[in-house]
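Entry 14. Structure prediction run on the chain below.
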Amino acid sequence: MNILQPPGWPRPKGYSNGISVRGRTIYTAGVIGWDEREMIVSHRIELQFGQVLKNILAILAEDGAGPEHIVRLTCYVTDRVQYLERRDELAPIWNSIIGSHYPAMALVEVKALVNSAALVEIEATAVVPE
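Output returned:
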């Protein structure tokens, strides 16, 4: 995996500008913060975010991938301000689940998600070297 960081650009916090990799690609659907019974784990965005990450890792593990193989995340939130206000709570959750790996990432605010209780939905792309 090669992190793409143009010279002179400031290092992004919590994500990478770009990543190049070769290998087997895995794509997830949009994943929300529910448990194995399809129950939303909390009304708090940071706890849903943590559950989403755990769910993504469970999906990736089905094909032998882990957090280190994630190259891109597209994160949809229903309230961008709430997400930004909770960054201090999100960082330790990220670190406990994903570690110090920071893929390319996009954050998009949307009006609503299919599950009305969901505050965050994330699509992941992972690449496992062959």
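The mean pLDDT is 95.
Filed with the rest of this week's runs.
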